[in-house]
Amino acid sequence: MVIGIEDAIWGIFVADGTGKFPNFFPIAVYTSKEKAIEEIYCLPKDLNYQLLKLPVNRNFAYYHKKSGKLVGMDAIYHEHYHFKEDSDE
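RE: above sequence
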């Protein structure tokens, strides 16, 4: 399969809720959103997940305007899948 410049991959990340960047880590990557969502619903329900659409051949780093430190990602489409109860965290 050839991925073109306008294409993206769909990454599933575990969200650990610490609030400190990065507060999530990747566990799977798919070429379609549908397959990624299907997999999310098969994962353990004691964690929260994020689904990110990550464009290929593009840098999406976000740097703090004053400090210049890398603090996140810019303009990335994402969805949250909350399975873990807030009271359990």
